[in-house]
Amino acid sequence: MKKHFIPAVIATLAAIGFTTACSNNNATPTTQVSAKKVVKHTKKTKKVRKHKKTKSVKQTTKLKITINGQTLHAELNNSSAAKAFAKELPKTMSFRDFMSGFPEKIADLHHSLPTKGMPRGHEGTKGVIGYWSPDQRIVFYYGTESYYDGIHIIGKFTSKNYANVIKNMGNNIEVRINQAK
Q1: Does residue 41 have a pLDDT over 90?
Q2: What distance in Å separates the CA atoms of residue 138 and residue 132, rounded to the nearest whole number?
Q3: What's the 3-state SS for 91-104?
Q4: Do the Cβ atoms of 82 and 154 come closer than 8 Å?
Q5: Rg (the chain; Cα; Å)
Q6: What span, in angstroms and rounded, lies between the C-alpha atoms of 78 and 60?
Q7: C-alpha 175: how far from chain center
Q8: Would the CA dihedral through 161, 163, 169, 174 be positive or negative?
């Protein structure tokens, strides 16, 4: 019974990282494992190996938006609504003022976009592209709007002159939205 018990104990201890004896150099290696690094020590050598950290890169869809002959650049985020909208591009939409005093231009989409996994509402902050789910509209914000349930942020402008171009574009203007190459 002892013949089988002792090798089993040694194998178990070695498997879970306890000390084992080296054969030729009488060094006793010790292995410590942590979430950050694995370190192996002996009397003669010391090796450090760091785990590679992988960053999750969120893919965005780059856009080229043409308004009155001027090109603006933007990007869609990784939301369910943004992904669905990107599948519809290229697209031409007619944008207009929402109401006097509101810093936004709107275009009717005529169908819903999925909002699964998105916040129930948001504020329309300066420079973002939104989806207004109650009326199925795409919204360009050139100023900041209060929080409303139904505002879903799907992207943002990356061109510095977006506010001036959008604010002064007029009403019932055809806007071409393409994926940038």
Answers
A1: no
A2: 6
A3: EEEEEEECCCCCCE
A4: yes
A5: 29
A6: 6
A7: 26
A8: positive
pLDDT digits (tens, 9 = 90+) for 127-166: 999 999 999 999 999 999 999 999 999 999 999 999 999 9
Name the amino acid, one letter, at 99: M
What is the Cα–Cα distance from 152 to 123, expressed in whole angstroms? 9
Residues 29/20, Cβ–Cβ less than 8 Å: yes
Mean pLDDT of 88-99: 96
Q: Which secondary structure element, helix H or strand E, spans residue 6, and what is its range?
A: helix 2-15
The amino acid present at 109, given as its one-letter code, is L
Q: How far apart are alpha carbons 29 and 46 in whole angstroms?
A: 10
State the amino acid at position 43 in one-letter form: K
**Distance in angstroms (rounded) separating the CA atoms of residues 116 and 83:** 11
* Beta strands, E only, 19-164: 30-33, 37-41, 46-50, 61-67, 70-76, 91-97, 104-108, 121-123, 128-132, 137-141, 147-149, 151-157
**pTM score above 0.70:** no
CA distances from 159 to 33, 140, 141, 165 (A): 48, 13, 13, 10
| pLDDT score for 140 | 98
